[in-house]
Automatic annotation (TrEMBL):
Domain of life: Bacteria
Enzyme class: transferase
Record lineage: Bacteria, Pseudomonadati, Pseudomonadota, Alphaproteobacteria, Rhodobacterales
InterPro entries cross-referenced by the UniProt entry: GAF, GAF-like_dom_sf, HATPase_C_sf, HATPase_dom, His_kinase_dom, Sensor_HK_TwoCompSys
Keyword Repeat belongs to the record: no
Keyword Repressor: no
Listed GO MF terms: protein histidine kinase activity
Protein name: histidine kinase
Keywords carried by this UniProt record: Kinase, Plasmid, Transferase, Two-component regulatory system
UniProt-listed Enzyme Commission number(s): 2.7.13.3
Gene3D superfamilies given in the database record: 3.30.450.40, Histidine kinase-like ATPase, C-terminal domain
Length: 400
């Protein structure tokens, strides 16, 4: 089969089709709608069973193929290396087109590591490939395939190249617009995270100051007051016997231990996350039935200390809310690691008032949200008449 250059093919008969393709592309804002808008017109002069566009990304990899006719694994693979593409010689610019009578038996489509399964799975035999070129740079390829071997010849190559040259600027503009859109999204998300972290750090600083004040008041109003009363009583001869003094000192020590455990969860370091949660749950639940189910195989203990303590504080606050305010008869805590680390505190209490659930003002829920935000976790609160569920989860890769 002799080669025939584009200049030797009269484009006159193709012009009406090319004009209609150009009009069909106008206003298309994504690659898939673009290829589908021109596919029917292409089939009038270049019949096919499968047609696709593959585009080169800025990092040098191939994006997913945008297909019409039939769906193949090429369209389901989000990115691929050019070195594994069956048309890599075209994408590298080593050839200006590819024409084959039968791709299933053509050695150009068979080399180590090639991703050519769709050729054999769908019996794509006759094939024409033309490069998509903008300002001398190859940005992708137009591929047309038929089930029938020997279906295409040099004139079909020329027609494919006319189509490729026509649609390349449109596709280039779409690629750049998509790149700009993604960059804008990334920048917006980064700014939102930065602002969120700034506000979160401010709120957490205020929360920590409030926590210090609370600890100071607990020490002053409770432990210090108890010790002062004990000293006054001891100053009176014969006022207290040794057993009474020891009992009151034991109460003071218990109060101090409670305050210390609240301020610095040493039990977390000594016995692990699940045990610390279980101990706090039993202390805070009152008469409610409690259960801790740990299916994570100790996953929280593998986190860095900042993330682990933040998670513990979130769970601690959720338990406190259930025990003190929800009048719960049962509180369950579940720790799971699949598909990502997730801790859920669920109760059967009266639920959160609507204004509290939606409020962004300072308070328990606000502090939980802030702690979650600072370690890149997601906090979810669901509440109704049948109880409340608080869930905190980390992304698959752990905290940032």
């Amino acid at each position: 089969m002799s080669e025939l250059s584009d200049q030797e093919v009269d484009p006159g008969p193709l012009l009406p089709h090319l004009f209609r393709i150009s009009r069909a592309l106008a206003g298309r804002l994504d690659f898939l709608s673009a290829i589908r808008s021109v596919a029917q017109e292409i089939s009038r002069f270049l019949p096919y069973d499968h047609l696709d566009l593959c585009l080169l990304r800025h990092d040098g990899t191939l994006s997913a193929a945008y297909e019409t006719g039939i769906e193949t694994a090429w369209g389901r693979k989000e990115t691929a290396g050019v070195q594994n593409s069956p048309i890599r010689e075209l994408l590298w610019g080593h050839v200006d087109h590819i024409l084959t009578e039968d791709a299933t038996a053509d050695p150009r489509f068979a080399f180590p590591g090639v991703f050519c399964a769709p050729i054999h799975d769908h019996n794509l035999r006759a094939r024409v490939h033309a490069p998509l070129v903008v300002a001398g740079d190859i940005i992708g390829a137009l591929s047309i395939s038929s089930f029938a071997p020997g279906r295409y010849g040099p004139r079909d190559v020329a027609a494919a190249r006319y189509v490729a040259d026509l649609i390349s600027p449109y596709l280039f503009a779409l690629r750049e617009a998509e790149r700009s859109r993604q960059a804008a999204i990334v920048e917006t998300e980064a700014r939102a995270r930065e602002e969120g972290l700034r506000l979160g750090a401010r709120d957490l600083t205020q929360a920590l100051e409030q926590e210090r004040q609370r600890i100071g008041m607990d020490l002053h109003d409770q432990t210090l007051a108890d010790l002062s009363r004990l000293m006054r009583d001891l100053s009176r001869p014969g006022a207290l016997d040794a057993e009474t003094v020891l009992a009151r000192l034991d109460d003071c020590v218990a109060d101090l231990r409670r305050i210390i455990d609240t301020a610095v969860p040493s039990i977390l370091d000594m016995f692990g996350f699940a045990h610390a949660v279980r101990v706090h749950l039993e202390r805070a639940a009152g008469d409610a039935q409690v259960e801790v189910q740990d299916d994570s195989q100790g996953a929280p203990d593998a986190l860095d200390p900042v993330a682990r303590i933040a998670l513990f504080r979130i769970v601690q606050e959720a338990i406190n809310n259930a025990g003190r305010h929800a009048r719960a008869g049962r509180i369950d805590v579940r720790i799971a690691a699949q598909p990502r680390l997730r801790i859920t505190v669920a109760d059967d209490g009266c639920g959160l008032p609507e204004d509290v659930r939606r409020s962004r003002k300072k308070g328990g829920l606000s502090h939980m949200r802030t702690r979650a935000q600072l370690i890149g976790a997601r906090l979810s609160v669901r509440s109704g008449r049948t109880g409340t569920s608080v869930s905190v989860s980390l992304p698959a890769g752990g905290p940032p």
